[in-house]
Structure formats: structure tokens, C-alpha cells
Design goal:
Elements (H helix, E strand, L loop, with lengths): L10 E6 L6 E4 L4 E4 L14 E4 L9 H11 L2 E4 L1 H7 L8 E3 L5 E4 L2 E7 L8 E6 L5 E4 L9 H8 L3 E5 L8 H11 L3 E5 L4 H14 L4 E2 L7 E5 L3
Parallel strand pairs: 3-4, 4-5, 5-6, 10-11, 11-12, 12-13
Antiparallel strand pairs: 1-2, 1-14, 2-3, 7-8, 8-9, 9-10
Helix pairs in contact: 3-4, 4-5
Bound molecules: zinc ion (ZN).
Zinc ion binds next to loops.
Amino acid sequence: MPIEKTPEKNAILFVWFNHYAGVLIKTPSKTLVIDPVDIRARSFPNADAVLITHEHYDHLDPRLITEIQKATNCTIIADPASAQRLKHAIPPEKLQQIRPSEEIKVGEVSVKAEKCNHPASEPVTYIITSEDGVKVFHTADSLPFPELAAIGEREKFDVVFCTVGIAPGTSPDTGFEIARLTKPQVAVPYHTNSAAYQQQFAEILKKELPKTACLIPELNKIYQVSKRK
Ligand SMILES: [Zn+2]
């Protein structure tokens, strides 16, 4: 799956690579990998950074992260509980702990953490802003929470990833609620192994939030999203 392609200016490429929150994001200059599990390290030969949202098994695989880090010398950005579990395997200068409202730069790309409504230790969601200003909101497997409205208003997201299954309490409805609050240009239903749930999300979105496009991703396919006009 290594992406050879580079996005056009003012665009990013993304790939959803497992049934959870595993997403690769490629900007013109950087490759970011979020929550890699159930995949081989060699899928990410060009990773500049790996971002971890929380310590659950479907988001954090310390052995795999160690392997990716050794092969690429990339930076690891992780919530405090995951950072704690990685600190014996990752060189200290390559491991950066992050908490909500903190920002870390990967070259010209900004990675900012926000709150996450999920029963884990100190989980985070990630706002990724490319060097061109394309805005991606990776919401881990969060349930909706009220602050999402203000975050959406402030950031004007191009893409928001919305959990529609597997995690406690999540459904196509809670996924839609994330889209409704954040009002992105494109909403992507993920964190599920049910095509029916993704379809339900798409139907609710079309009816209730017609200005937001739904992109139902297939695993391991490359999608390009451009900055809103
Ligand atoms: Zn999960």
C-alpha cells in the first residue's frame, strides 16, 4: 500500500487501512500515519510521523510502532497513556506526548490535539492542517460532544472522520452527530466493518446535512480531498 503518488497543491491524499481508525494522510510534503494496527510496518516506508489517539488494542500496537519507527526514524506523537507504553521502545527525542489543545509541528504540517469522548485514559482527537491549509479532523473513535460545534466553526474542516460502529455507544447516528456539529466539506464514515452502517450514515447525512458530501471509503484505496473554495 505505500503511496507513491503526491497530492496536488491545496489537496491531501488519504487511505483508510483497517476497520478501526487507521488512516494514512499524505500532504505535499509529509506522510502521517494514525493509529496503525492490523497492518505491516513496510506499508509505511515514508512515514514522517505516527499519531496515536489512545491506548486501546485497536489503536495502539507498540511492537508495530517500534518497527515503523526503526525503519523510518519518524516521530511518534501520542496521548499520555500510549506515550507511557512506548517510552521504553522509542528514542526519547522521537516520542512526543500530546494533550488536548497542544500543537506539534511536523515540518510545515500542524498536528493539534483536541478532546475525545471515549472511555480510555486520556484519549485525543487530531486536527491536521497541511502546509496548504487543508484541514482534516481525525476524531479517533469518539462519540459526539458539544465542543465539536465550536471546533468546527473555528477550523472549517475539509474532511472529518466519523466513527459509526464498534466502539461503545457508537452508531451511524452518533457518527452523523459528529458531522452535524463540525459541518465539514466531506464526511467519512469509518471505524466499522459494516458497509450497511456506512450506508445508513450516508443516508442520514444526505437528508439532514445536504451541503456536506459523504465519502464512503474502501479499505486501502487512495482518495484525494481538496481545500474548500
Ligand atoms: Zn477503536
